[in-house]
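Collaborator request, handled under Task 6.
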Amino acid sequence: MSHVKAGGTAKNVHDSPGQRLGVKRYGGQKVRNGEVIVRQVGLTKRAGKGTKLSRNFTIHAAKDGVVKFNERRVRLFSGKSVKRTEVTVE
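Structure tokens returned to the collaborator:
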């Protein structure tokens, strides 16, 4: 009776690389047209003037300029008003 039975299942064995999300160009840095400013999942930061939002919510520079981050209030569907960070290129 020295054999092994019922080993069970292995959990948490899948190892995928990180997605490299986050802010790529900070406030005050110069950007050129098409450069990635923020990579994100969902709309954590909003695209303002001088930027464009791609299908995977990445914010790109739409023109050459300097990156600027500022907070503004956004109204949700429920009517609640919350602060959100807006990214602009000036």
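The cover message to the collaborator said: "Residues 22-89 form a domain with the OB fold (Dihydrolipoamide Acetyltransferase, E2P) fold (CATH 2.40.50.100). The chain has one domain: 22-89. Please let us know whether this matches your experimental observations."
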